[in-house]
Write a structure and sequence with these properties.
The protein has about 150 residues and is mainly α. The chain has a single domain, classed as Winged helix-like DNA-binding domain superfamily/Winged helix DNA-binding domain (Arc Repressor Mutant, subunit A, Orthogonal Bundle), CATH 1.10.10.10. The chain contains six helices and two strands, in the order H-H-H-E-E-H-H-H. It has a two-stranded antiparallel sheet with strand order 1-2. Helix 1 crosses helix 2, helix 1 crosses helix 6 and helix 2 crosses helix 3.
Amino acid sequence: MFSLTVEYALRALVALAFRYDHPMTVQQISEVAHIPRPYLSKMMQNLARANMVRSRRGLGGGFALVHPPDETTIWDIINAVDPIRRIHTCPRDDDHQDMACPLQRRFDRAVTLLEELFHDTTLGNVVNEIGDRSQLCGWTAEANPFES
């Protein structure tokens, strides 16, 4: 249902939410969130343009969230990388003059439910639910970039 870009963006920003006060390099995010580095680099640039992350060069640099995890909703992230489209016309391509298409109504209701759920879910909620950072994406404690 969601694009790979949405999945990767969510995984990357959850990783950043764990280290809200400390930037992470593309290498660190890639390892923690299991995202290919070239794809991640481009995606992080797009997220920076969307004002979801900021980057800092040099020693101690990397990417960090612009807004606190409790203020960044899953819906914000989805809309920043690959917005869910509403269906404004009947998928059958017919002209319904007397009522909205039943299929269109169902699609719109599904999107509305997703929107409500993801508007109410922040990165902070996700981080609190995950709890132990070592559980993130199956990361092992032996080589945990969260410890650096």
